[in-house]
Amino acid sequence: MNAIITATELASELAGGTPPVLLDVRYQLGGPPGRPVYEAGHLPGAVYIDLDSELAGPPGAAGRHPLPDLDVFAGAMRAAGVRADRPVVVYDGGQGWAAARAWWLLRWSGHPDVRVLDGGLAAW
Q1: Domain 4-59+66-123 maps to which CATH number in 3.30.920.30, 3.40.250.10, 3.90.550.10, 1.20.120.10?
Q2: 49 vs 8: CA distance, rounded Å
Q3: Spatial separation of the C-alpha atoms in residues 22 and 5, rounded to whole Å
Q4: pLDDT digits (tens, 9 = 90+) for 46-104
């Protein structure tokens, strides 16, 4: 399976029988938090995931964005509608690193079907 999905491929999957769970992980290091930009507009049905609180543990000796506690991460993913039997597509503002982190964490925790939207929200 390819780890990247194009906007055209995503549109086709969203129109299909088992649409993917969409996770909006927009984030700017040192910039405004991602939730306000999510609330201003996002892909239909997408759920916002906060990098600082759901994709990373508290900053400290392990770094600014250490791995999250697995139970906290799993709870956030369940609340977002992520299940093992449903594909997931993650996207960010286009730079790709926040979406890549979400992709890696989902694969690391065992999710079998995760892809990153090529070009992020701007590609839509």
Answers
A1: 3.40.250.10
A2: 23
A3: 12
A4: 999 999 999 999 888 878 888 999 999 999 999 999 999 999 999 999 889 999 999 99
Q: Which two tokens stand for residue 93?
A: 């503002």
- Which tokens belong to 17? 């029988």
Domain-wise residue ranges, the chain: 4-59+66-123
At 9, which amino acid appears?
Answer: E
- Enter the tokens of residue 58: 């508290």
Dihedral over alpha carbons 55, 57, 34, 6 (to 10 degrees)? -20
pTM score, whole prediction = 0.94
CB 82 within 8 A of CB 64: no
> Residue 3 is encoded by which pair of tokens?
């780890």
